């Protein structure tokens, strides 16, 4: 089976993890801060906060921005369920903004319409969370401008998009957002097995996220109620979690960062090959916005008869997948009053979507096999 995505682990990655296993610290040591600095540096952001998953990073990002009961978070339906779930973790209400029919990221016109309606109804969101689907940035300048006008905060769910660029600057620089979150799950661009990281330029948000990833405990006298009682002293000043990344994970991530640019370049090369060689088949290729350089986490195509083409490809040993079943159509969300028809662009996209194999280690022979199987399935 040729999978739709998989990690690329080098001998240097393995050596980096083993070195940590022989060292003094398996957690809360020096490697996590080095990994944070490497990712923040790559992005051109002032701070990086590493945690045990992107889901955790999205959660502490919402907490740092004070999302709570009575507040509203908007994200897109064409995403992994975690983007929406973190709003519920905070006790907030969650709603969705439909996606663009061509690029499958948050539609700015749909966002504008919804903001006008929400303002009239007195229900403006506290946080808007665009998702850089498949590795392509949403139109962050436009979303950032609306954030200024309507007073909401912006969290970028860039789980797919480390190494991507928007208007010639790296995704994660937070020029148009408060916080940007990456995932390091093995199918993503670089991996720490499980892991995630939030970047921000706001030192207060960084400190609050650090607090929430580790039980709400601080050892900084400046953040304590009253005076420190001595060198042993710490205070729990808020309710936090244990969302810490281990030193082994950080060592793997740090080693993987050496190949980030090569991984993204290779994914772009493979995508360019698909673009060329699928041009004459009856399918829709993923459209690219001219201001965006995608990290190509996914290569999602649209076909008329999705169920049959999917089954034929699986039969041929191609590990195709579908990203995403619209979140509002999941039973959990349907029970919270969402229904089919609420977000027609995301639903229409889903009805025809297949993600075909794309990962840095995909070789030309395997890509040939995928293309031939697709051509045969499309008759
Ligand atoms: C993978 C993913 C997440 C969750 O990432 P984890 O690191 O697995 O928690 C969130 N949002 C999107 C869009 C994702 O693809």
UniProtKB/TrEMBL annotation:
Pfam families per record: DegT_DnrJ_EryC1
One GO process term, biological-process aspect: polysaccharide biosynthetic process
Keyword terms, alphabetized: Aminotransferase, Pyridoxal phosphate, Transferase
Residues that bear N6-(pyridoxal phosphate)lysine: 188
InterPro entries: DegT/StrS_aminotransferase (IPR000653), PseC (IPR020026), PyrdxlP-dep_Trfase (IPR015424), PyrdxlP-dep_Trfase_major (IPR015421), PyrdxlP-dep_Trfase_small (IPR015422)
Active site: 188
One MF annotation (Gene Ontology) recorded for this entry: pyridoxal phosphate binding
UniProt record similarity statement: Belongs to the DegT/DnrJ/EryC1 family.
Protein name: DegT/DnrJ/EryC1/StrS aminotransferase family protein
Source species: Octadecabacter antarcticus 307
């Amino acid at each position: 089976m040729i999978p739709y995505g998989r990690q690329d682990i080098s001998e240097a990655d393995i050596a980096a993890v083993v070195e940590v296993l022989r060292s003094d610290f398996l957690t809360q040591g020096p490697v996590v801060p080095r990994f944070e600095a490497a990712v923040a540096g790559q992005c051109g952001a002032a701070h990086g906060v590493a945690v045990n998953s992107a889901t955790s990073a999205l959660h502490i990002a919402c907490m740092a921005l004070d999302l709570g009961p009575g507040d509203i978070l908007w994200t897109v339906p064409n995403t992994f369920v975690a983007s929406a779930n973190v709003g519920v973790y905070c006790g907030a209400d969650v709603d969705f903004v439909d996606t663009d029919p061509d690029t499958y990221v948050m539609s700015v016109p749909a966002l504008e319409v919804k903001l006008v309606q929400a303002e009239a109804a007195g229900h403006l969101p506290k946080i808007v969370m665009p998702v850089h689907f498949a590795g392509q940035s949403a139109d962050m300048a436009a979303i950032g401008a609306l954030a200024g006008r309507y007073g909401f905060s912006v969290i970028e769910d860039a789980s797919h998009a480390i190494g991507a660029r928007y208007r010639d600057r790296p995704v994660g620089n937070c020029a148009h957002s408060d916080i940007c979150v990456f995932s390091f799950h093995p199918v993503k661009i670089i991996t720490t097995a499980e892991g995630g990281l939030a970047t921000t330029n706001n030192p207060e948000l960084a400190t609050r996220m650090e607090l929430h990833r580790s039980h709400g405990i601080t050892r900084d006298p400046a953040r304590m109620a009253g005076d420190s009682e001595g060198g042993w002293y710490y205070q729990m000043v808020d309710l936090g979690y244990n969302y810490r990344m281990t030193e082994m994970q950080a060592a793997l991530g740090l080693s993987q960062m050496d190949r980030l640019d090569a991984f993204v370049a290779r994914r772009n090369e493979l995508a360019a090959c698909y673009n060329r060689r699928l041009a004459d088949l009856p399918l829709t290729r993923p459209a690219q916005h001219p201001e965006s350089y995608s990290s190509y986490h996914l290569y999602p195509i649209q076909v008329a008869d999705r169920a049959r083409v999917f089954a034929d490809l699986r039969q041929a040993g191609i590990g195709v997948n579908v990203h995403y079943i619209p979140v509002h159509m999941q039973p959990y969300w349907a029970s919270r009053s969402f229904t089919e028809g609420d977000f027609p662009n995301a639903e229409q996209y889903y009805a025809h979507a297949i993600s075909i194999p794309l990962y840095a280690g995909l070789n030309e022979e395997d890509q040939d096999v995928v293309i031939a199987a697709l051509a045969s399935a499309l008759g």
